[in-house]
Each structure stands twice: as structure tokens, then as C-alpha cells.
């Protein structure tokens, strides 16, 4: 692939093998990945999928067995140790367990990366306070990490990671140890850094909420490989792989809703003039009153059993499970109208008794 | 006083110089073994598999040397090491001669203690420092030694107390000191008050070291 100036991170055919019981196990298996400047790129997978190993390759904390790592047109494996350390300064990283130094104050932690720069004490203090202000923790400058909550610790870690003015921030499960509310506030902070500083962010997670919340692009990893990737809105609304679908449906509660509804014995005796249907609206389709329009047009009775609207990368996505009652031909026409309008439909089969 | 410890009073000057001999042996060998043990302990941590300067050959050599030296009973080490002692200080008997076996007896122990103290430093913090482009020297100085400081103080105290114990055995090669007085005078001449007084003085030394060490460790633990 030609050198694209928009490209900040380029992994080519990366494999990482670990020896376990004398056998080589591929934690990452021939993965190529490009991240553009200004992007927020999410990598999702269950634990053991190799996503953590993959992001550690990006700053060579983990050296790959095969493949090349290029950051900002600089191939990292070709660098000597001193050059690699300099390159790492442009790649900030935050961690699940924050990894703050317990013997240093909040400000001391943020100043740590600045110690190896030729800065006066005043300049260091000024810069670290500025960063603490950016993450909203300036009044905690003299506290120690042990006095902070998890969310505050992660904010300190973010400020510390930004001290070297990195081009990219790698987030290794940074919200996985936090409660949902704190997770949201950390994600808001990351989004703000992306917008205000133009910071490129690569984050890994096992929670679709995180991807949905801030990512523009997503890659789904399983057994060391990327099995699906693309724009979040597209992957989210039209998952191709079972695992991806699993993540999507879990995060929208659709999965549990479908299970609950299809297991309901009272629905196992639907008549010929009834359909149990799952509708997935994308973008503008969810704004129009499609269902009520069609029910009037074709004289249908729509009984909504489940509905949920979600925001994915700024777009609305709606999920509805409903029973449609009416003439069979009318139902067919209504469904084809829905499909024309860009709604994905799937007929559900309620489980028979005793099944 | 004279009625309680008559034999100690009778050899007052020799007893007091024995106290200073013990202090001299402890301090001098503590400083040298301290530097040596700290260096070896750090090297063990950074060269071990997964360390910041992983080097299996260096690690395994150091590890074996430490194990070997720790396996030799100190009373025997005093004797086997005498050619080296002779080479380094020109004699194999006396207080200064005892420094060589004391250093070789205690530094491997200290190196292991340091290794364990530094292994308690959160590996994640070390990894964070690596991700920020810190050099190995910066990581040793600003992460390992700083984050591990209170543990380093604690293991140093344990080591100094062990070292005071070793100096008493060095009497076997005529080192002098409180151990020598307690055994070759107090015990050999059935002058029990000398043995007991020497023991009490040693206990007081240990108590002072322990109290000071605990205070210092707490002082650096402000977080």
C-alpha cells in the first residue's frame, strides 16, 4: 500500500507467537490494520482474542514475531533503543488498572514523562497543571493516587499520557474497571480530546457500549484475527459475523428480548394472519412514523412487544419486535415496503411447546 | 554495679572496645555489602525473564552465584574464603580480616531481599514507564528504587540485624567484638555476667536499628 499521509498507524501482517508447553500459540495471527489521523478506532473482542497483544505491538511493548509496525511513516522495528524511546513518546498509553506511581502525587505523576525533557521545574509544574486542568483535576494536584476514585485515577493517567504531546493515545481496556457512569465520563473526556486536540485514539474493549459511545471505526477480533471491520454505524447495523452480531445484540438488549419473547408459550400459537417480526431501523428510517403509516395503509394491527432506540456514532438505530396481524398479502406488502425504506426485517419463530 | 557484673567491670575497657568492634564490622560490611547486594538485586530483577533488560544468561549466572554463596554456612565461609581475605587485606585474622567473609556472607542475602522488594513494584507501572519512553536507567532510578523505597528500607533493616548476628560468629577468626567476648571470655571462663551483658548490648543494638528502620520506612510512606 502506498504511503498515505492520512495514515498514522499501519500494521502489516502482524503475528505474535507465544510458547506455551513447548508449542507455539499465535496470540495475533497475520493481522493488518490501518488507523487514520483523527480517528477513534475501537478493537473489540472477548478476553484472549489477542486485542491487548495487538495494541502492545503498536509501541513495541510487545515485539511481533512477524510483520511491520509503522507509526507516522516511521518503521519502529528499524529503530535503535534510543530512537524507539523517542518514538514511544509520541504514543500515549492508558491502562485498565491505571498504573499510577503510588509514591508520587497526582501532579508528580503527570510530571513524570516531563522529567526526561530539558524543562525547568517551573515549566514542568506549569505544563502538568495545565494538563490536570484539561482533565478537570487541578484541585487534586497534591493528592496521592490512593486518595482518588477509579475514574479520577484514569483521568490522571490520561493527563500523564498526554504530557509528551502524543499523536496517538492507546487505551488498553481503560474503562473496564470502572462503573457505567464513570465509563461514560471517561469516554466523554476521550471524545473531547479527539475533537479539541485532534488526538487519534485506538481503544480496545470488550464492551460494545464503549465502541458505540465514541468510536468511528471498529475491528472485531477473535482468536488472534480481525474477523470484521468497518465504520461503526455499518458494522453495528449490519453485522456479518456471528460474534459481531452477538456483541451488537447483547449491547442493545435485543438478544435477551428475542430469547424472552420466543420462549413465551402464549406466542407459540400465532395464526396464519399473524407474524412475529424483528425490525431494525437505521438512520432516518427510525424518525419516520413508518409503522403507523403502514398499519393504516394496509389495515394492519401492530402489537409492539419490544422497542429500543440507540445512538451509534451519531446515528439513530432502532430495534423493534412486534406482532403484525392482518391479511397475509397485506403483511407481505407491508414488509416489502419496510425493506424498501431501508429497514432490516427478520421473521421470528416462537418455540413450540415442549421444545 | 560492681557486685552485679564484676567481671565486666574488671575488663571495662576491653568490653567497650568490643562494642566498637561490633559497630565497625557491622557498619563497614553493611555499606559495601549494601552497594554490592543492591546492584546484584537490581540486576536480577531487570535481567530476569520479562524484565526490562531481559538477559537469560546473565540472570542465570547471577542467580546461581547468589544461591551458591547463600548455601555455604557462615562459620565455614570464614575459613574457606581465607585465601581471598589474605589477598584483599593482607591477613586472615582480626577485625578487618573479618570484613571480607562478612561481606560475602551477607551480600547474597541482601541481593535476594532487594530482588523480592523490587518484584513487589507493580509491573504495570514499569510497563507504563516503558510506554512513556523511559530508559532502563530512568526506570530503575525513578520507578523501581522510588516505588520500592519503603520495602528496600525494611529489607535493609532485616539484613543489618542478620549482619550483627554474623559478626558474633566472626570471633572464630579472632575478629573481636561482642560475640568474641561473650564466647571466648564469658563462656570459656565461666564468667556468665560477661556473656549476659554482651547479649543485652547486642539486643539493644538490634532494637535501635529496628526502631529507626521502622520509623524511616513509615516516613517515606506518606502516600
From TrEMBL, chain A:
Record PANTHER family: AMINO ACID IMPORT ATP-BINDING PROTEIN (PTHR43166), METHIONINE IMPORT ATP-BINDING PROTEIN METN (PTHR43166:SF30)
Ranges where the ABC transporter domain occurs: 11-248
CDD domains registered for this protein in UniProt: ABC_MetN_methionine_transporter
TM segment ranges: none
Entry annotated with the keyword Mitochondrion: no
SMART domains in UniProt: AAA, NIL
UniProtKB keywords: Amino-acid transport, ATP-binding, Cell membrane, Membrane, Nucleotide-binding, Translocase, Transport
Record organism: Paucilactobacillus nenjiangensis
GO terms for MF: ATP binding; ATP hydrolysis activity
GO terms classed as biological process: amino acid transport
Protein name: ATP-binding cassette domain-containing protein
Record lineage: Bacteria, Bacillati, Bacillota, Bacilli, Lactobacillales
Keyword field contains Hydrolase: no
Database matches in Gene3D superfamilies: 3.30.70.260, P-loop containing nucleotide triphosphate hydrolases
Amino acid at each position: 500500500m502506498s504511503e498515505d499521509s492520512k495514515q498514522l498507524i499501519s500494521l502489516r501482517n502482524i503475528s505474535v507467537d507465544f510458547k506455551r508447553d513447548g508449542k507455539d500459540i499465535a496470540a495475533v495471527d497475520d493481522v493488518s490494520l490501518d488507523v487514520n489521523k483523527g480517528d477513534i478506532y475501537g478493537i473489540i473482542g472477548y478476553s484472549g482474542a489477542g486485542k491487548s497483544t495487538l495494541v502492545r505491538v503498536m509501541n513495541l511493548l510487545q515485539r511481533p514475531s512477524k510483520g511491520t509496525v509503522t507509526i507516522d511513516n516511521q518503521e519502529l522495528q528499524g529503530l535503535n533503543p534510543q530512537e524507539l524511546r523517542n518514538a514511544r513518546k509520541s504514543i500515549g498509553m492508558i491502562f485498565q488498572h491505571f498504573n499510577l506511581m503510588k509514591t508520587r502525587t497526582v501532579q508528580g505523576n503527570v510530571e513524570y514523562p516531563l522529567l526526561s525533557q530539558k524543562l525547568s521545574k517551573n515549566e514542568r509544574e506549569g505544563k502538568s497543571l495545565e494538563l490536570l486542568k484539561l482533565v478537570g483535576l487541578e484541585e487534586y494536584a497534591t493528592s496521592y493516587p490512593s486518595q482518588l476514585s477509579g475514574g479520577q485515577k484514569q483521568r490522571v493517567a490520561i493527563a500523564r499520557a498526554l504530557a509528551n504531546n502524543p499523536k496517538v493515545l492507546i487505551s488498553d481496556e481503560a474503562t473496564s474497571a470502572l462503573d457505567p457512569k464513570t465509563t461514560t465520563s471517561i469516554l466523554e473526556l476521550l471524545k473531547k480530546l479527539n475533537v479539541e486536540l485532534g488526538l487519534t485514539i485506538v481503544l480496545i474493549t470488550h464492551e460494545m457500549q464503549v465502541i458505540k459511545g465514541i468510536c468511528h471505526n471498529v475491528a472485531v477480533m477473535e482468536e488472534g484475527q480481525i474477523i470484521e471491520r468497518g465504520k461503526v454505524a455499518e458494522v453495528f447495523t449490519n453485522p456479518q459475523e456471528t460474534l459481531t452480531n452477538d456483541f451488537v445484540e447483547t449491547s442493545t438488549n435485543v438478544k435477551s428480548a428475542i430469547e424472552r419473547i420466543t420462549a413465551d408459550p402464549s406466542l407459540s400459537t400465532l395464526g396464519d394472519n399473524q407474524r412475529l417480526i424483528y425490525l431494525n431501523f437505521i438512520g432516518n428510517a427510525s424518525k419516520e412514523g413508518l409503522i403507523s403509516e403502514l398499519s393504516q395503509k394496509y389495515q394492519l394491527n401492530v402489537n409492539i412487544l419490544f422497542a429500543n432506540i440507540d445512538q451509534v456514532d451519531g446515528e439513530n438505530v432502532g430495534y423493534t419486535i412486534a406482532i403484525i396481524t392482518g391479511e397475509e398479502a397485506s403483511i407481505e406488502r407491508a414488509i416489502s415496503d419496510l425493506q424498501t425504506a431501508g429497514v432490516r426485517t427478520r421473521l421470528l419463530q416462537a418455540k413450540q411447546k415442549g421444545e | 554495679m560492681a557486685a552485679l557484673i564484676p567481671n565486666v567491670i574488671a575488663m571495662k575497657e576491653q568490653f567497650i572496645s568490643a562494642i566498637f568492634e561490633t559497630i565497625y564490622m557491622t557498619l563497614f560490611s553493611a555499606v559495601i555489602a549494601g552497594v554490592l547486594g543492591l546492584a546484584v538485586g537490581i540486576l536480577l530483577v531487570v535481567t530476569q525473564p520479562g524484565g526490562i533488560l531481559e538477559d537469560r544468561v546473565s540472570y542465570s549466572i547471577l542467580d546461581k552465584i547468589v544461591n551458591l554463596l547463600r548455601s555455604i554456612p557462615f562459620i565455614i565461609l570464614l575459613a574457606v574464603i581465607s585465601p581471598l581475605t589474605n589477598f584483599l587485606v593482607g591477613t586472615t585474622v582480626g577485625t578487618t580480616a573479618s570484613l571480607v567473609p562478612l561481606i560475602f556472607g551477607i551480600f547474597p542475602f541482601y541481593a535476594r531481599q532487594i530482588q523480592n522488594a523490587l518484584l513487589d513494584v507493580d509491573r504495570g507501572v514499569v510497563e507504563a514507564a516503558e510506554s512513556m519512553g523511559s530508559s532502563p536507567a530512568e526506570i530503575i532510578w525513578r520507578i523501581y528504587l522510588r516505588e520500592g523505597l519503603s520495602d528496600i528500607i525494611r529489607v535493609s533493616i532485616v539484613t543489618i540485624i542478620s549482619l550483627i548476628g554474623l559478626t558474633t560468629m566472626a570471633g572464630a577468626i579472632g575478629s573481636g567484638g561482642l560475640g568474641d567476648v561473650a564466647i571466648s571470655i564469658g563462656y570459656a571462663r565461666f564468667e556468665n555476667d560477661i556473656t549476659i551483658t554482651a547479649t543485652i548490648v547486642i539486643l539493644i543494638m538490634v532494637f535501635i536499628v529496628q526502631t529507626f528502620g521502622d520509623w524511616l520506612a513509615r516516613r517515606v510512606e506518606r502516600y
